[in-house]
Design brief:
The complex is a heterodimer of chains A (617) and B (198). With 617 residues, chain A is mostly helical. Chain A is 69% helix and 4% strand. Chain A folds into two domains: 6-174 and 189-392, Up-down Bundle (Na+/H+ antiporter like fold); 410-610, Rossmann fold (3-Layer(aba) Sandwich). Chain A has helices at 6-26, 31-42, 54-60, 62-73, 77-82, 84-108, 113-124, 128-137, 144-166, 175-185, 190-221, 225-245, 250-261, 267-291, 295-300, 302-326, 331-341, 346-357, 363-391, 399-404, 406-409, 421-432, 444-451, 465-470, 486-499, 512-520, 531-544, 549-572, 577-580, 587-599, and strands spanning 414-417, 437-441, 456-459, 478-481, 504-509, 525-528. A six-stranded parallel β-sheet of chain A has the order 3-2-1-4-5-6, with helices on both faces. In chain A, helix 6 (84-108) runs antiparallel to helix 16. Chain A is globular. Chain A starts with 5 loop residues before the first helix and ends in an 18-residue tail after the last helix. In chain B, 38% of the residues lie in helices and 15% in strands. Chain B is built from nine helices and six strands, in the order E-H-E-H-H-E-H-E-H-H-E-E-H-H-H. Chain B has helices spanning 17-26, 37-40, 48-57, 74-83, 125-128, 130-138, 152-155, 159-178, 194-197, and strands spanning 4-8, 32-36, 60-66, 101-107, 142-143, 147-149. In chain B, strands 1, 2, 3, 4, 5 and 6 form a six-stranded parallel β-sheet that branches. The chains are: A mainly alpha (617), B alpha/beta (198).
Chain lengths: 617, 198
């Protein structure tokens, strides 16, 4: 930013993102790594397009604030209340144990205890940005590993507050700064400060619950989209500023605001307005982390940096793994949880800077530690990939059982991939009719429980032929693909058709376009996930309007049949494929076409069913 | 060659050895369509348009079903109620089925003797089928005497008799397809089976 040419910098950042992120995604590396690598490339140590990252990073950190607002929007207060155990228990223990471990290690390396403790606290924190973004991208947020990781991150956000208070107390070199910083943060006496904090949080909760709905309603009525976007941004920035003013973490504040607004009518509106800003700012943040890596220092002291980074990651991993085990997380979940959180976080950059001005830590040491944190962040996406590719699959096959009872294992005639809301319905029906199914899901905790009921279960995404092979696909008769992601579903279908052509494939279609693509692949046993239940409720709506229920049911079934047929016709349509199937923005056109067809639904004969007199043919 | 449409109504076909054997026998013939109502409409919601289209294209319609309570399984009654509409099958403009032939193929638990004035079912098969006969008549269709697999349970145990019945069914369908038999030679019969007993 010191060039003063904002547009040029923006061009460089956007260019780096646009080039590297799609490539990284295509290579299966995830967007976070793409951004980080892009940052390294344009940074001062490779191409040198951009300079000092401090300002950019401070600006981009706002992406994390927005991210927590969005996470809050997804989390109803009741749900958050249910998570209080893991947040305080797991989160609290993680911060305490990691701080203790790192402090002891620091003292072992010869630091005085104050410095070691300061470093311990700062490094105990993980990177909300990297962890949440990576887990969301992989669709792992809803798994028990994802939920536990989120609980820990949330506690860390809260823990920053006391850390900011404690850090100055650890100062050894220039105690006068302690007074200064004390006056900025704890200027009033403790209890007045406490009252202010409680007051501001209460105001956020009260405002979110009672004021925001009418205000957003009023703004929405103006029908000016950009004004709604502006007010959404205003809300987030306002809350962040208020939190900063009282010395709390802005991310925590916006998270609370998000939770309060999770019940609001405008939740989705807010989500879609903030989402792009969050995405870009987070991207910028990752780039700035990448660009900020001090390669000069790395090459000057490679062994020290690598050694410390390894120590940090391994140390945090061990603490997390012990916690995961004591929380009875299943093995793959425990690994995912521990690998995901085993890095330093963005708070470290802020807190190190603060520790430096407070005179707690010398500048030279901070440079080294900042580099260690950045390196550990850079390594996280890579470690997640290693975990996903090489570690998780090892828990998938239940090798021992497999050998002991080969025959019995492979007798299950049907495999269900994906055991969420949809797969469960399928599996339960089978179980109720004494048919044992083999279930594959990526949520290990779910799976452990299901096992008790006689299902044979495997942990995994079901996209690999090896996994299906060990799940008994060679001897099974049919496979139900009930995953909730279109791409993953199509990948599985391709793979099954290629490697297990004898299997009858039945698929949960996420939407119309997905159903069309499945028909084109020759899969005709499809059920669109919401069509059947929507049609059922539609029948009930007809009954509510006074129709006789058997007639309403009949209309609903005939309508569904007509609709299934129109999907098949769409699949057989041989014109310009792009005309129909070009992706999400076509969904609206598709709906229009469908509605048009519905008004011409040729069911004249049915108008006279059961001797209802009608016009003569 | 004329089109033969077999409307099959059996709610538990997998357990009916006789019906399966009969179907396998006629399935060898070309231009025979077997239309399994329970498998096509598991929820009982019959598509009138589809059914009428199929029916219009057929020259001979065979209704094959077990003789539940001296009638057909429920889905066939629903089928009749819905598909044979006013001004399609009957009524001033209802001529879609005119001149087509109707053959009922039955499986019964009771023996041949049970279906007689002296037997415990008190009526002959032909008498009990009167509603179907009249339905065909109202639609302008020719109602042929039914082909009956009596004593279905015992029939399953004597492969020769079952084989014989299957062959009779198949050869009769062939005759129907080629339109080379005179219905006057069978119209007086109580069941079609008697044709081969004479």
């Amino acid at each position: 930013m010191e060039h003063g040419n904002l547009l040029f910098d923006a061009f460089i950042y956007l260019c780096a993102a646009v080039v590297s992120v799609p490539i990284a995604k295509r290579l299966g590396l995830g967007s976070v790594l793409g951004y980080l690598v892009a940052g390294v490339l344009i940074g001062p140590f490779v191409l040198g397009f951009v300079g000092d990252q401090t300002d950019v990073m401070h600006f981009a950190e706002f992406g994390v604030v927005m991210m927590l607002f969005l996470v809050g929007l997804e989390l109803k207060p009741s749900l958050l209340w249910k998570m209080r155990g893991p947040i305080v228990g797991t989160g609290g223990l993680q911060v305490l144990l990691s701080t203790a471990a790192i402090t002891l290690f620091g003292m072992y390396l010869g630091l005085i205890w104050q410095q070691a403790l300061a470093i311990g606290m700062v490094l105990a924190l993980s990177s909300t940005a990297i962890v949440l973004q990576s887990l969301q991208e992989k669709g792992l947020m809803k798994t028990s590993a994802g939920q536990s990781a989120f609980a820990v991150l949330l506690f860390q956000d809260i823990a920053v507050i006391p850390m900011l208070a404690i850090l100055p107390l650890l100062a050894v070199s220039s105690p006068e700064l302690l007074v200064n910083s004390n006056s900025t943060h704890l200027g009033e006496t403790g209890w007045i400060q406490g009252l202010v904090v409680v007051g501001v949080i209460a105001a956020i909760i009260f405002g979110g619950k009672y004021l925001m709905n009418p205000i957003f309603g009023f703004i929405a009525k103006s029908k000016l989209r950009e004004i709604f976007t502006a007010s959404a941004l205003l809300l987030v920035i306002g809350v962040a500023l208020a939190m900063q003013a009282i010395g709390l973490s802005p991310a925590l504040g916006t998270f609370i605001a998000g939770v309060v607004l999770a019940d609001s009518d405008f939740r989705h509106e807010l989500e879609s307005n903030i989402e792009p800003f969050k995405g870009l700012l987070l991207g910028l943040f990752f780039i700035s982390v990448g660009a900020g890596i001090d390669f000069a220092l790395l090459f000057a002291e490679p062994l020290v940096v690598i050694g410390l980074t390894a120590a940090l990651i391994i140390g945090k991993f061990l603490v997390l793994f012990v916690l995961a085990k004591s929380n009875k997380l299943a093995k793959p979940d425990a690994w995912l949880f521990s690998v995901a959180l085993a890095q330093g976080g963005e708070f470290a950059f802020v807190l190190f800077a603060f520790a430096s001005t407070s005179g707690v830590l010398p500048t030279g040491l901070i440079g080294l530690l900042t580099l260690v944190v950045a390196t550990s962040m850079l390594l996280t996406p890579l470690m997640l990939i290693v975990n996903e590719k090489y570690i998780s699959p090892r828990f998938a096959t239940h090798k021992k059982e497999h050998r002991d009872a080969d025959v019995i294992d492979e007798e299950n005639p049907i495999i269900v991939i994906g055991f969420g809301r949809f797969g469960q319905s399928v599996g339960r029906l089978l179980l109720a009719n004494n048919i044992s199914a083999t279930v594959l899901d990526h949520d290990a905790s779910q799976i452990e429980m299901v096992k008790k009921f006689g299902f044979k279960v495997y942990y995994g995404e079901g996209e690999s032929a090896e996994l299906l092979h060990s799940a008994g696909a060679d001897t099974a008769k049919a496979i139900v693909v009930a995953v909730d992601d279109v791409d993953s579903s199509l990948n599985i279908v391709h793979m099954v058709q290629k490697h297990f052509p004898h299997l009858k494939i039945l698929v949960r279609a996420i939407n119309r376009l997905h159903a069309v693509e499945l028909h084109r692949l020759g899969v005709n046993d499809i059920e669109r996930e919401t069509m059947a239940s929507g049609a059922e409720l539609g029948a009930k709506a007809l009954v509510a309007l006074g129709w006789q229920s058997n007639i309403a049911y009949r209309k609903s079934r005939l309508f569904k049949k007509h609709d299934d047929k129109s999907v098949m016709e769409l699949a057989a349509y041989n014109g310009d494929e792009n005309e129909y199937i070009s992706k999400a923005n076509e969904a609206k056109r598709l709906l229009e076409e469908t509605l048009k067809q519905d008004t011409h639904w040729p069911h004249e004969a049915d108008e006279h069913a059961w001797e209802k007199p009608g016009k003569l043919k | 060659m004329r089109n033969v449409l077999i409307i099959l109504a059996h709610p538990n076909l997998a357990n009916s050895q006789i019906n399966q054997a009969l179907l396998n026998a006629v399935n060898k013939n070309d231009k025979v369509t077997i239309h399994d109502l329970y498998s096509i409409y598991p929820d009982g919601v019959i598509d009138i348009d589809d059914e009428q289209e199929m029916l219009t294209n057929a020259d001979v319609v065979i209704f094959q079903h077990p003789f539940y309570w001296y009638s057909a399984p429920a889905i066939l009654k629903e089928w009749l109620d819905l598909v044979l509409q006013f001004n399609y099958a009957y009524g001033p403009k209802g001529e879609a089925l005119k001149g087509k032939q109707w053959l009922t193929v039955l499986t019964t638990g009771g023996s041949k003797n049970a279906y007689s004035t002296e037997g415990h079912n008190r009526f002959t098969i032909r008498e009990l089928l009167t509603p179907f006969d009249q339905t065909a008549h109202l639609c302008g269709m020719e109602f042929l005497p039914p082909l009956v697999a009596h004593g279905a349970r015992n029939l399953g145990k004597s492969p020769e008799r079952l084989k014989e019945l299957c062959e009779q069914y198949q050869s009769f369908v062939t005759e129907l397809q080629q339109d080379d038999f005179d219905s006057n030679t069978v119209n007086h019969l109580d069941t079609l089976n008697q044709r081969w007993e004479q």
